[in-house]
Amino acid sequence: MPRAVRPLLVLLAVLLAAAGCRRGAKGQVKIAAAADLAKAFEEIGREFTKRTGVKPVFTFGSSGLLAKQLAEGAPFDVYAAANVSFVDEAVGSGACDGATKRPYARGRIVAWSRSHKIGSLADLADPRFEKVAIAHPEHAPYGKAAKEALQAAGVWPQLEGKLVLAENIRQTLQWAQGGDADAGIVSLSLAPVDEGGRSLLIDETLHAPLVQALAVCKNGGGTAHGQAFADFVLSPEGTAIMKRYGFALPDSPSE
């Protein structure tokens, strides 16, 4: 299929799904989404509502904990994770439809501090940084990427004693902004605008790619609305919003 035709087909699918939503009850669509998506999905949600009349209700959290909630029967219509493996887990538990699984973005991580400049990951070992926050590597993909990057940079042993583990990437940023940590490794999508070198974009080669995926879920009772929202995320308008928040397309070259 010619590349130029694909965006038109995606847009057509969104419009058809939206028309289906308008014929039925407007209602809501319940979205379980990784914490790094908060800003981007809130904007996508507003645009989706303008076009369909359907209001997204978001639950943001760590991908692993959301997958566990889905396996226990949590009523979501869409699951958007910060990696592919947790979507596979949700499909395996029967909570999501494997035929609807699609990658939608690739994320980036940054080291961020509200008060100190960061020139390299090695700077985090400096005594100025008494506490460094990352999301928990066991259930937060961005925390796993942070750990991999610190290990690859050779500074993990020096930082183990000063690391504080947040439940998800949004809490990581809250701790770094609020002073509970002197720095945090957070998602580019959530990081405040850099002022004075207090943010360091981490080389993607230091960690496994943060390819993010979504799927339509079975427990929420709103499969049609869920499919329409998933299609909108992957539409040209949805991907343009994602790019504005620092996400790349899943198959785009690494920087």
Notes on the protein architecture:
The structure is a single chain. The longest helix has 19 residues, at 5-23. The protein has a 5-stranded mixed beta sheet with strand order 2-1-3-10-4, sandwiched between helices. A 5-stranded mixed beta sheet has the order 7-6-8-5-9, sandwiched between helices. The protein is built from 9 helices and 10 strands. With 255 residues, it is α/β, with parallel strands linked by helices. α2 runs antiparallel to α9 (236-244). Mean pLDDT is 90; it is low at 1-25. It has helices at 5-23, 38-52, 63-71, 85-92, 141-152, 156-159, 169-178, 223-233, 236-244, and strands at 28-34, 55-61, 78-80, 102-107, 109-112, 132-135, 163-166, 183-187, 199-201, 210-216. The chain folds into 2 domains: 5-107 and 209-244, D-Maltodextrin-Binding Protein, domain 2, CATH 3.40.190; 109-201, D-Maltodextrin-Binding Protein, domain 2 (3-Layer(aba) Sandwich), CATH 3.40.190.
